[in-house]
Amino acid sequence: MPPTVLVVDDTASIRFLIRTNLELAGFDVIEAEDGQDCLDTLRDLETLPDVITMDMMMPRMDGVTAIMRIRSNQRYAGIGLVMVSTQSQQIDLNRAAAAGVDDYVTKPFDPDNLVETVRRVLQSRA
């Protein structure tokens, strides 16, 4: 089975761009619109995703809060987390790292770099 990535972003066009590039690289992709939708999706899935790409700034629940909640739940311990955000200041990188992300990709991103980052996180979690 191909690895699965849960793409979390409140902008449909960004989700589509990430989905398309990951599917072309051989990943299965599911989507969520924000941090709360991500947590609801994870709760309802029988088979968890291998990696989550998470936007930082979203309504209802931001990416940092969602990542802290994911990292605090033992059921999700094996999931790799990649923050994909326009926020690129050192303070943002530090917040994401403290929350528990495995890697960080800044928007706008190079699609090949995003795919390679997801692969690297997937391998480091294997």
Tell me the layout of helices and strands.
Blueprint lengths: L3 E5 L3 H13 L3 E5 L2 H10 L6 E4 L8 H9 L8 E6 L4 H10 L3 E4 L4 H15 L1
Parallel strand pairs: 1-2, 1-3, 3-4, 4-5
Overall pLDDT metric: 96
**Approximate strand percentage:** 15-25%
| Structural class by secondary-structure content | alpha/beta
* Estimated helix fraction: 40-55%
Question: How would you name the oligomeric state of the polypeptide chains in this document?
Answer: single chain
N-to-C terminal Cα separation, in Å?
14 Å
DSSP summary, beta strand count: 5
Give a short account of the largest sheet: 5 strands, parallel
SSE string: EHEHEHEHEH
Shape: globular
Rounded Rg = 13 Å
Give the helix tally: 5
How would you describe this protein?
The longest helix has 15 residues, at 111-125. This protein has helices spanning 12-24, 35-44, 63-71, 90-99, 111-125; strands at 4-8, 28-32, 51-54, 80-85, 103-106. Strand 4 (80-85), helix 4 (90-99) and strand 5 form a beta-alpha-beta unit. It is an alpha/beta fold and 126 residues long. Helix 1 (12-24) packs across helix 5 and helix 2 runs parallel beside helix 3 (63-71). It starts with a strand and ends with a helix.
Précis, in short:
The longest helix has 15 residues, at about 110-125. The chain has helices at about 10-25, 35-45, 65-70, 90-100, 110-125, and strands spanning about 5-10, 30, 50-55, 80-85, 105.
Features:
126 residues
